[in-house]
Amino acid sequence: MLLRRLSSGFSVWSTLLLAAGFLGPAFGPTVTAQTRVVWATDVRDYSSEYSDRQYAAAQALGAPDATPGGGANPVAWSAYYPDQEEEYLDVEFGQSIEARQVVVAESFNPGGIRRIEVGKGFGPLVTVYEDKRPAPLSAGSRMFRVPVPEGTGRIDRVLITLCGDCVKGYQHIDAVGITASSGPVEAPIHLAEDFNPGPPENMGRRINSGQEEVHPIISPDGQRLYFTRKNHPENLGGQGLDDIWLARRGPDGDWARAEHAGRRWNSTGEDYLNAITGDGGMALLVVDSKPDDRGNPLLVSFRQEGGWSSPQALQVDDYATASKYASFHLSADGEVLLLSLAREEGEGGKDLYAAFREDATRYGAPMHLGETINTAAEEVTPFLAPDGKTLYFASNGLPGYGSADIFVSRRLDDSWERWSEPRNLGPSVNGSDWDAFFSVAADGAYGYFASYNDAIGGSDIFRLPLDGEARPDSTILLSGRVLHGITGAPVSARIEGIWEKARRKVWSDPGSGRFAIARPAGDSAELLVRKRDFLALRSKLGPADTSVLLRIYPIEEEVVVPVENIFFEPNSTELARRAQTGLDQMLEFLLDNPDVQMEIRGHTNNLCSEGYCLELSLKRAKSARRYLLEQGVLAEQLRAAGYGLRQPIASNDTEEGRDRNQRVEFVILGRVPLADPQAE
Q1: Strand 638-642 and strand 596-602: pairing?
Q2: Mean pLDDT in the chain?
């Protein structure tokens, strides 16, 4: 099922922990460490650990990550039994220093430290702290600082002994550090750089109501805002359930009053929109229905003439998760499905995965996004910006302000496993509760999220301007359609967008021929369209183009392929320099398909005598053929023919018609067997 409960206050996860007595008050919302600290790098020994991944001894290594938010968290070490007389953790550091203090981040149930000893290598240990009667503290967590006496010497090892039966329940150690300073030490929160927004803007009463609005999804073009509304009397299931609503932006830039999304997407249960593609042609949904036999609840709806199609199952190869809660997102071009799943190969909790499109309703097996993004805790609610590389997600396994915070990271290459260090979006977005769900449009100007702070109802939709590391690359969403060149029917084809420094590949939808592709703002682009048994099509676009109609032609006998921009000098058979653009559209196809034979047909208008026009058209066809042969096309692939003024396609009474008639066409003659180079 969708990560449904996470959208209202604490998640179910947090609520259950709270009910069980696991969550306590957090550290104060500090931002950066004031003192340089060397954090533990290796575990020498330990008495026990709760598991070999979650709550493992190794989770105490490195800088704090369960803190300053605090609370029960699998990214901290916990002994296997909560009430043993003594449990210990022995760690070492990558360097030895003249330490002035030892720092222990007790992220949950603090107060049970009985003894702290320090040393260097295999030398003797020196006790720097001892409490014969440890007792629980009222605070839910603390950064425990212990001074190291002068003369202790250089240290690179710390041994911590806990009194398990002195504090009721599990005790968690998040990090262990040493520092040459005696100053205060605070758990660092790694904030997005150059991002210091003011208070977020409430989207107002046209969108927000007295009920709860959660899970906002802004369409890539920024013109529609989808969200889930809880407990509203107009919901199909009545109050107590969730439905999909939407608001539309008018020509003046103002938002119209939100409206119910209707019965096509909503049921009498709980319903959610997870994503909508850039052309508005494909929606990813979870409608309250029975998942498939592997627990996959995903549905997809396609925009058709007259409305949206009924949602149908979206197939994901090797779909599996150990949790009944999951969350999903679909990239703006529809090519990448992001999933938050609890799987055996993960880090321990729910991790983020990517699955890549195989066809209109099927995606491949989920691929783990790697350890930079995923922790032993929970990574949920992914959102990939339309630039295809900026990822927003929620985690409770990284340093933050509450039980979960929203972070941003960037994909560093095409492997989908190398990411930049996740950055916290800061206190304007993240508070002391469970914060999740964040979305941005293609221009990257604003981020949209839900919050309980200063809300009209229980939870409202807010937005705030993005900048610095929090802002994705600004992109232009290019939308288009691919149609059969003869019948005009929609065609599913592979479209590759080519820019100076990037390439993106997408599929057009088989039902409508629609596709969307995000392109860098300000760059010229080139589209290459390929489909088996069709001529490849190359189309150039200007920096301001936002839509395109592409017609591709089947490789069948007598199919006429009009090729634009094949120009000649006036009354000449010499190709103009700009003619190369049109001929190059055919060149790549002919090189890739050496068995296809075509005839180049030249045509003219009626401004000259029939004999002159016939001769001129033939010479122009031969000139085009000669150019292609010089580029490597086989001679047996091409014939040249001139038809003069005999086959007009428009009236010769107008200048526009005469321009259309003066043309070069490629006509498919069929396929010819290739010579076998091994034959005698």
Answers
A1: parallel
A2: 87
Question: In whole angstroms, what is the distance from residue 597 CA to residue 674 CA?
Answer: 11
**Token pair listed for 573:** 């058979």
Q: Which two tokens stand for residue 68?
A: 């300053």
Cβ 153 vs Cβ 120: under 8 Å: yes
CA separation for the pair 300, 366 (Å, rounded): 18
Helix (H, G, I), strand (E, B) or coil at 92: strand
DSSP H/E element including 12: helix 12-19
Residue with tokens 């005469």: 658
Structure tokens at 242: 């969730």
Phi, psi values for residue 594, rounded to 5°? -70, -5
The three-class DSSP label of residue 380 is strand
Element (H, E) at 580: helix 579-592
Instruction: Give the C-alpha separation, 663 to 659, whole Å.
Output: 8
Phi-psi region for residue 169, left (φ > 0), alpha (ψ -120 to 50) or beta? left
Do residues 102 and 146 make contact, with C-beta atoms less than 8 angstroms apart? yes
First to last CA, the chain: 65
**Of 51 and 279, the one with more pLDDT:** 51
**Structure pTM?**
0.82
Strand, helix or coil for residue 330: strand
- In 3D space, the residue among 368, 371, 392 whose CA is nearest the CA of residue 380 turns out to be 392
For the stretch 89-113, pLDDT in tens is: 999 999 999 999 999 999 999 999 9
Cα maximum dimension of the chain: 114
Nearest to 663 by CA among 638, 637, 644: 644
Structure tokens at 203: 């989207």
Report whether 141 contacts 26 (CB < 8 A). yes
Which DSSP helix (H) or strand (E) runs through 99?
none
Q: Are 68 and 120 in contact (CB under 8 A)?
A: no
Phi, psi of 562 (to 5 degrees): -70, 130
352, 369 contact by CB (below 8 A): yes
Band (pLDDT 50/70/90 cuts) for residue 575 is low
Let me know: does 386 contact 375? Beta carbons within 8 Å: no
Question: To which H or E segment does residue 659 belong?
Answer: helix 655-661
Cα separation, 96 vs 672, in Å, equals 76
**Segment 204-255, tens digit of pLDDT:** 999 999 999 999 999 999 999 999 999 899 999 877 789 999 999 999 999 9
DSSP 617: H
CA–CA separation, 400 vs 396, rounded Å? 8
Other residues' Cβ atoms within 10 Å of the Cβ of residue 493: 22
Answer yes or no: are the C-beta atoms of 641 and 618 closer than 8 Å: yes
Q: How many CB atoms lie within 10 A of CB 441?
A: 25
Distance CA 597, CA 604 (A): 23
Alpha carbons 220 and 448: distance in angstroms, whole number: 12
How many whole angstroms separate alpha carbon 127 and alpha carbon 632? 81
Q: Is 128 helix (H, G, I), strand (E, B) or coil?
A: strand
> What is the H or E stretch that residue 656 is in?
helix 655-661
Query: Cβ distance 268 to 468 under 8 Å?
Result: no
- Name the nearest CA neighbour of 387 among 497, 246, 465: 497
Q: What φ, ψ does residue 129 adopt, rounded to 5°?
A: -155, 140
Q: Which of 388, 399, 447, 448 is nearest to 424 (CA)?
A: 399
Q: Using omega within 30 degrees of 0 as the cis cutoff, is the peptide bond preceding 68 cis?
A: yes
Give the integer Cα–Cα distance in Å for 288 and 241: 10
How far is Cα 91 from Cα 478, in angstroms, rounded to an integer? 54
| Per-residue pLDDT band at 522 (split at 50, 70, 90) | confident
